[in-house]
Amino acid sequence: MKLLFLNRQVVRELLPMRACMDALADAFRAYSSGKSVQPLRTMMKVPATDDILASMPGYDGASQSLAVKLITVFHDAAEAGFDSHQGLLVLFSAEHGNPLAIMDAIEITAIRTAAASGVATEALANKDATTLAILGAGVQARSHFHAMTEARDIKSVRIWNRSRDRAEALTEELSAKNSADVTVADTAEAAVSGADLICTVTAASEPILKGAWLQPGVHLSAVGSSTPSKRELDSEAIVRSKLFVDSRESVLSEAGDFLIPKSEGAVGDDHMIGEIGELLSGKVEGRQNKEEITLFKSLGMAVEDVAAAHLIYERAKAGNRGVWIEM
After folding, report:
1. What pTM does this model have?
2. pLDDT band (50, 70, 90) for residue 122
3. Phi/psi of residue 152, nearest 5 degrees
4. Residues paired with residue 183 on neighbouring β-strands, in sequence order
5. Is the dihedral of CA 74, 158, 186, 169 positive or negative?
6. pLDDT tens digits along 245-298
7. Backbone angles phi, psi at 53, to 5 degrees
8. Residue, of 178 and 313, whose pLDDT is higher
9. What is the 3-state secondary structure of the chain?
10. What is the sign, positive or negative, of the torsion defined by CA atoms of 215, 221, 223, 229?
11. Statement: residue 76 has pLDDT above 80
12. Is the pLDDT of residue 33 over 80?
């Protein structure tokens, strides 16, 4: 038996943002139509730390593919020169169950997470949105910049990060790659003031974005927090927004951004308008007017990884990329 091994560089080259967004749109529709299988991720804490080892299996009904992602989240990894998120993805044949490929999961996670936000932005943001605020300056900040510029014609970008040095470095990098005017904001409030699109992509435990700062018509992508006790948005931001999610089940189990205001009595489960897959399939309605504030809460789904892995594998075979390994 032979397996195809695909490293990080090859994964990056074979998974362009636009193609990933299109694949994820199909995966969202399939998931919300009941054609996919995705148990909640299993997360194990490493003793005496807040670090995590997680397993994310899934079957994507759109591509009819089967895979599992194994990923670690080590919050202090950057000090040793590693990414905070690391891991591998194994793609299996859904027909015979045999493993087909092993590929880097860091790049898949970076691209597909932002691609999901890109799909939601295309479906929910005002068509004339041109101003983007990014809260955070890590891997997802960079990836979300590319997703947002794919989804809308972005003219100006403001980046805020607790570490201004990282925000300045990212600003310099992005300015060299795009014609948009990219600047550093002194505060989170200054970054989001007047913004048409806002992406929160931090590791914050407490809110960094207040609902009082949001202008009518803005679209939010809340990505950073994925545990019940942590959130990036305050309760007012949730209350003021029309909430769309990737997965109801995941949000009701893991999303502190929603669960904390729910525990306060500020919102109920019916505050979730629907899943993005339902929106794309026409089962729920999206933005009704230019003044509404819309919010996509992303937890990240295994079927996103499966759809991305299927696309990468097919492109790798067609282009004779990667290394075949005899098992």
Report:
1. 0.94
2. very high
3. -145, 165
4. 158
5. positive
6. 999 999 999 999 999 999 999 999 999 999 999 999 999 999 999 999 999 999
7. -115, 125
8. 313
9. CEEEEECHHHHHHHCCHHHHHHHHHHHHHHHHCCCCECCCCEEEECCCCCCEEEEEEEEECCCCEEEEEEEEECCCHHHHCCCCEEEEEEEECCCCCCEEEEEEHHHHHHHHHHHHHHHHHHHHCCCCCCEEEEECCCHHHHHHHHHHHHHCCCCEEEEECCCHHHHHHHHHHHHCCCCCEEEECCCHHHHHCCCCEEEECCCCCCCCECHHHCCCCCEEEECCCCCCCCCCECHHHHHHCEEEECCHHHHHHHCHHHHHHHHCCCCCHHHEEEEHHHHHCCCCCCCCCCCCCEEEECCCCHHHHHHHHHHHHHHHHHHCCCEEEEC
10. positive
11. no
12. yes
d(CA 221, CA 229): 19
The token duo for 27 is: 């995966």
Report the pLDDT value the prediction gives residue 327, as an integer from 0 to 100: 87
Residue 76 token pair: 């202090």
Residue length of the chain: 327
Alpha carbon distance 61, 69 (integer Å) = 17
Statement: residue 40 has pLDDT above 80:
yes
Exposed, middle or buried: residue 81 (CB in 10 Å: 0-12, 13-18, 19+)? exposed
Token pair recorded at residue 190: 């200054």
**Strand arrangement, sheet containing 65-73:** 42-45, 52-60, 65-73, 85-92, 99-104, 2-6, 323-326
pLDDT of residue 80: 74
2-11, 72-81, 285-294: which range is least confident on average? 72-81
Name the residue type at position 122. E
Q: Which two tokens stand for residue 156?
A: 């100006």
